[in-house]
Amino acid sequence: MSRRIAVLGLGAMGLQMASWLAKSFDVVGYDIAAERVALADKEGVASATSAKEAADGADLVLVAVRNRAQLDELLYGADGIAEVMKKGSAIILTSTIGIAPVEEVAVQLAEQGIGLVDAPVSGGPARAGKGDLLVTVGAYETEYEFAKPVLDAMASTLVWVGKAPGKGQSMKTVNQLLCGIHIAAAGEALALAGKLGLDQTVALEALMSGAAASFMLGDRGPRAIQADNGEEAEVKSRLDIFVKDMGIVTDAAKSVGMAVPVAAAAEQEYLLGFARGQAAMDDSSVIRVVSPEDRA
Amino acid sequence: MSRRIAVLGLGAMGLQMASWLAKSFDVVGYDIAAERVALADKEGVASATSAKEAADGADLVLVAVRNRAQLDELLYGADGIAEVMKKGSAIILTSTIGIAPVEEVAVQLAEQGIGLVDAPVSGGPARAGKGDLLVTVGAYETEYEFAKPVLDAMASTLVWVGKAPGKGQSMKTVNQLLCGIHIAAAGEALALAGKLGLDQTVALEALMSGAAASFMLGDRGPRAIQADNGEEAEVKSRLDIFVKDMGIVTDAAKSVGMAVPVAAAAEQEYLLGFARGQAAMDDSSVIRVVSPEDRA
């Protein structure tokens, strides 16, 4: 592949994706934080001194930003890449920023002949670093095919869920609805188990052996038990990501006239966690919102 | 084993457990509905003409009733078995009736020298019929050991979660909190997927491949999609069971001073389903509570 790829945004996910892709492609990376660029450089990612420099001449620009404001700044701000990107190139947007924003940005980019491949990813940094992500894509066919070699490299599971930008976000929104609820539910379950006098670790094992099992219960359960017992669990995924994502979930539901009471209750728990100062803690710490102070 | 076992309550679960146990033990069964006794008889379960007759002389009485009212009637009603059960015998209570009720009944039975093995089961009738249940037990050691051969036969996973009656119910309560939330969450997710224009079956498959996966999503998902599209899905587990069980969950949480907002939101969805006339439908039909009428 002689295709030239820029990776913009070298945060937890972007750095891992850039490093992995650099093993198979010609990758140049950029981040507004110089120390992130230096980290990527160590992993074999060519560095640029600006977003514009990285995107200039690139066939595909993989974007890993946090939210719509960062995306708008990256595209149209002082160091905005939209004006330097060539016709026929495409942006692979790996971020979860909501359905309507992606649809709007896709229209703007199309006016300049730039494609948008809506490809939000799931799986976390460790899996991003070995091409083991779940990638759900919404894109027109031509652009999907153009980006497919890179998407294939990033994903262990690649699902083309819809033939337009926005459908990847739709799928990710549904995915996050479940993930966000399951983590909050794991918190309620394990806090209740403790309060009812059960051994939480024995309970977790029994729960995972039957119909109560979920991926999130198995993955977050041990860290939730730590958090419930006053320990600081390792931060594998920050709590404030779910403040953002559950906001996207309830907004999306409202936009189509749907009530989602269980998702809304989970959203409130993340907001309560945020208000309690847990934004940068592991998302499993949401258990503390419901955990009684006088736990045994 | 020359131990004599009575199985009282031959509903969906009781009939299957009795039939399975009759392959290895001397089992006599009874139900207030004569047609259920006839069904059990066909499966090799000796029949009795009253609960008292079945329990008289039994070493272990396995009880599969729906709720506390039925249990009280069975123990102390007109055909009440407590007065005929022998000292040193024990009741294996497989029902989910709540923590406090079991603790109270255990005290009453202990006064007569009858043990109570609190052993709520999970897994549904099909698994009950082949000894493939998850059984979480709360019992004193002597009684647990006494009942263990029968519990081992019923269970593929047997967990002795606590050394007193009530602890089995506690564990089951936590289990049901998760199961009830996960089914309601699957409904919200799949209804939202449909409303956002995604193919629900493709979405379900993608969701099950990643962090959004749960046992309930995989098991109930296909039937939820049927229910969302106006079909009558096969009834594998009735919706009103979760009206009862989520009531037990929120009561248990209140009793220990805990808020469980996500479980409470799920409980409301089952109550809404009940109010909409879905009590006897499959529990996956809870999706209809949130599904918009104008779905595409």
Automatic annotation (TrEMBL), chains A, B:
Keywords: NAD, Oxidoreductase. GO terms for molecular function: NAD binding; NADP binding; oxidoreductase activity. Gene3D superfamilies: N-(1-d-carboxylethyl)-l-norvaline Dehydrogenase, domain 2, NAD(P)-binding Rossmann-like Domain. The keyword NAD applies. Residues 4-162 form the 6-phosphogluconate dehydrogenase NADP-binding domain. The active site is at K172. Residues 166-289 form the 3-hydroxyisobutyrate dehydrogenase-like NAD-binding domain. SUPFAM superfamilies: 6-phosphogluconate dehydrogenase C-terminal domain-like, NAD(P)-binding Rossmann-fold domains. It comes from the Bacteria. Belongs to the HIBADH-related family. This is NAD(P)-dependent oxidoreductase. It comes from Flaviflexus ciconiae.
